[in-house]
Design a protein that fits this description.
The chain is an alpha+beta fold. It is built from 3 helices and 4 strands, in the order αβββαβα.
């Protein structure tokens, strides 16, 4: 189910899993920045733009997850 960027993004951190591309995203509402973490990897140090196509695709077709699920991460399918 698509994740609405409105009030939820203004008031909360949001974590998204997009299994199709084996990637997760973290939205920091305080910093207003997006972070990316590919399966089996650490979170990237550089932020990505909010209009990044993969991030927006994840919002449309991915799943909202918890902070703990994001921190634990996932291993890539091999």
């Amino acid at each position: 189910m698509p994740i609405n960027k409105g009030k939820k993004f203004a008031e909360n951190d949001v974590y998204v899993d997009y299994p199709f591309e084996e990637v997760m995203f973290r939205w920091s509402h305080v910093l207003e920045k997006v972070y990316r973490k590919f399966y089996g990897k650490e979170e990237e140090k550089e932020t990505i733009l909010y209009d990044n196509p993969l991030f927006n695709e994840a919002l449309r077709f991915g799943d909202e997850i918890t902070y703990n699920e994001y921190i634990i991460g996932k291993l890539p399918d091999e």
